[in-house]
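request received
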Amino acid sequence: MLKNIILLALVAFIWACKGTKEEKIIPVDNFFRTQDKAYYHVSPDGKSLSYLKLQDKKLDLFIEDIETGSVKQLTHLDEKSISFYFWTSNNELIYYTEDESKERKSDLFVVSKDGSRRKQLSSNEKTKVRVIEDQLIDDKYIILASNKRDSTVFDVYRLNVRTGKMDIAAKNPGNVTEWVTDNKGILKIAVASDGVNETLLYRENETLPFKPVITNNFETTLQPVAFAENEKDVLFAISNVNRDKNALVALDLKTGREKKVLFGNDTLNVVDAKYSKAKKKMIFVTCETWKKEKFYLDDSTKVKYAQIDKLLPGTEWRIMDKDKGDNTFVVRTYTDRNPGSYYLYIAGQNKLKKLADINPSINEKDMSEMKPISYKSSDGLTINGYLTLPKGKNATNLPLVVLPHSGPGGRNIWGYNADVQFFANRGYAVLQVNYRGSTGYGKSFYAAGFKQWSDKIQEDVNDGVKWLIKEKIANPKKIAIYGNGLGGFVALNCLYKNPDIYACGGSNSGVISLFSYLTTIPPFLKSNLQMYYEIFGNPETDTDYTRFASPVFHADRFKAPVFIAQNPKDPRVNVAQGVQFVKELKKRNVPVTYIEKEEGSNPVLRQQGRTALYKALEGFLQENLKQR
Amino acid sequence: MALDKKSGYRKNFSLSVTFIALISILFILSLFLAFNYSKKSIENEFVSEKVNVLEESIKPYNEFFQNKMPEVSYYNGFLDSATASKFVDTVVHKFPFVDKVMFYDSEVKNVPVRDGVNVGHLSIGPKSIFQFGKKVNPDSVKLFSEQYSRSFRIDDDFNSMALKLVRFIDQIDTASVPTQEELFTNFSVVLSNKITYLNIPRREDLKVYKEMLQSKLNPAPVYQQDILVFDLDPKKIKIINTRPLLYQIIRVEPLTYDPIDTSDENITTEIALPGAFSDFKLYFTSSKSYIKKEIFIYFMPIALVLLLVYGVLLLVAFLIYRNLNINSKMFKLQYDFVNNLTHEFKTPVSVIKIAGNNIKSATALTQKEQQLYGKILDEEADKLNGLMNKLLAFTQIENKAIILNQEEVNIEDFIESTIESHTLKHPDFIMTYEVVGFKTFITDPVLLGSLFDNLAENAYKYSNPGNKKLNVSAKLIKGVLVFRFADKGIGIPSSELNNIFKKFFRIQNEYNQMGSVGLGLAFCKELVNFMQGEITVKSKIGMGTEFKVVLPYNIKN
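response:
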């Protein structure tokens, strides 16, 4: 008997040892889990830290005194949940709550940081609010944009947080999509759009009317960052006007001309820029090549941030929030193998304190490295992307999952990606391609993707796969393609047009018809539609092309197994069409895995839906790639 | 016959005849039933198989209705005249029953329309109307457009579809998700020979439609909707006759079609068409002679199987009859044998009895008498003993119960001693012999002696007096020993030659009335077989008989 037990223990031990040698199969949910404590903010004086924490399925607001560490719960919500909040002064916060009903009824409150004073500013509003200036002006006003006058447009209001009174500050003529105030809270900039062209409007003070400064096509970026306080009528903006890549420029608002290029480079694309109110200057820009990198415009900032680099070795980080004096920071770290953590950094003491992990169930050691790649497309463009190889396997002859990103525009970025890590953990190499039409590689690369959704964009993806086959990394018989939204559209098109490359493919909430995709733009946004017509083609005049480009019309050409997931309650998708498409495929004896997923606001249901979806996807790939 | 009965052995010819007659009647009866059954089932199939014909023939319609028509929705209202024309081309090509397609390129808006349907604030009107189809004249493709509104009344198809849409929007609960079926039924109108289809908008659009119905939205939205009216011609349905041998003619006829001239020559059946063709039916006609062919095709295999069964039964009956016959012959032979044997035993027994009686009744026996009776008793006892030994030996050999004795035999001495013993018994028996090629061989002398004795005895028995001669020759030919026993006897008829080696067989003639049990040659054959040899016979009536015995030549090493 004893012998048997020893033997059993031995067997179990050997088994356990064997288990650790092979790559661990991590449960689906672990990849997607998010923290229940987030939205960290620092008070403008840097003395208090605030965050939201899940209490009984509702997010509640908490304040922590940084020095003493004492915590106070400011809200006890039961019906509505906090959507966003911000510090409006050293001692006061404003928070916005919404319920889960269809109308999304909302309340707005202002509360003192010790919770002693609280005032409800609005209740059960059915309109939406955007904050333009969050710092109190004259100790009582904040500036908001709201669609309460007309649900389709946002007007600017001055909200008196003491009385709850809202006065209209600027009426939207109907085409203004963005409002910008200067550092003192004076509304000076409006961005108007007719869908295709964007016009920057400026006024020197609130008594004058807005005057157009510069008009650009939607392909062009001109993104206001901050007003220069030392110079009159100068706006710092990220711009690619008359250049291919984004640069940080100082724009003369009188003439519309660039006064100075603060940071510009033929190869680097600026994606972010930070202004310091304390230093009254731009302190750094962030450029993104294969990953994000900071370039400093201020030496003391460079020295200060080098300290953070030293404290956080081997990881990337970005500033989530900071106080006015540039002393207390909320920093978020991340790498390709780690969703990262939040830290509190106090520059004066050079002290770093970990606040929370974004996803504590992810162990960095189990994750796979995401490597930047680039290759030449068949017509000579350089295409960038990322390749993630499964851990613990030789980089030869691997089954491959291609993940085209959604769009229009957009790109894959370097960092933790739950989908990618999930596939890699299951033993697949993952290819992400920033095909033409992706943003971040310059204006011409973006424009090169226009009306190429069923041509060159797919060719770019295919070229990537062919390159991997040539490099002997991918097994040419075991290649799948899968995407979300327009990524799903690309995936389905690639799948049926290239049966020699792809063994199977799938789409999750994918676009299957450009006709229905383009009708999702409401008719009253007819102007906006023009932009989409530029990118995709006009379904009314290019009916043949649109038909050709839409997979739904080509059910007869599908042969390989297809995975289709959609949310039957999604009002934006023509669900009937998806079902009809699946039926058609089934009738033609194409093996179809069809998943109807749940995407409610209920987190439990959402998690169940997600688990079911990825389980099905895993099974689908297993069956069609590994077992062949 | 009386004998048969007594022995309990029955043979009844009439029984066999009755049996054959009975199975023949059964055979004919089952053929008749099978034919009737075939007829019934073919007639049933004539009625039931029409469902399959309908199913096969209506398949293209179902495909059109369930797969092709909903393709209109894929365009989400963006269908224009050129694309619609192409779409219709493929439809007409693939589905020949589609005759003509009306295409209403329509708009749903908040502004009242002159032509179309206005309900509440919702208006549905065509921007332009086209018709496509094989028979449509190219210059009458475009029927209506907002710019050049020729005098053209929006017809009922458009209005009924539009009203159906309005009714649906009015009732729809925007919070719940309508099912696929709900959508499909509400966005299509199926009339006789006509289907109207409206592309199914998204749920979000339906919500806006509902709002538009109740109030004027600002800015006034305009939605695209495509209405297609398919004119169908049921006569152009391609009928697929799945049972061409069953149905001679299948036609599409109006539902009310019922010809008076229903002659007895034809049988007919019908089944109504579904969906848009519901005013029509498939009408099936076959002449009776046409059906008959199908009945025979159905009947033939059954008949063949029955015939086979009948044949097997007959064969079995014949075999049983044959076996019975053989058995009855065997029985007769055995009976004869017992008869003969009894007779054979009877003579010595009665002689012994008489001798015994005489001895018992005599007061005194003279020397001579005593010698005589002694000799008689001794001889008769020998006879009985010989008979019994013969019977015993025969059964032993037959059952292979004795073991072969292997001894070296000098053939000349052996033949001479045989001749000596026989000529001593029968002085008138003249025996000669010759030996060629060998002197000795190995065999069982007792068995060989029995063989020689039997054959010599037969030669003597079946020869006329004065001609009782036997020539024995022994030769070594090609490694085997060949013995020939040639006599000048009465001979055996060739018809009996095959039977003489059978047990209990005797040729019925005057020579063997006594002293024969019909075992001699059968015994010889068993002996030769036992010695791994062969025995054959040649004979001519009146000329003599020659037995030839072939034995293996074994010598001592």
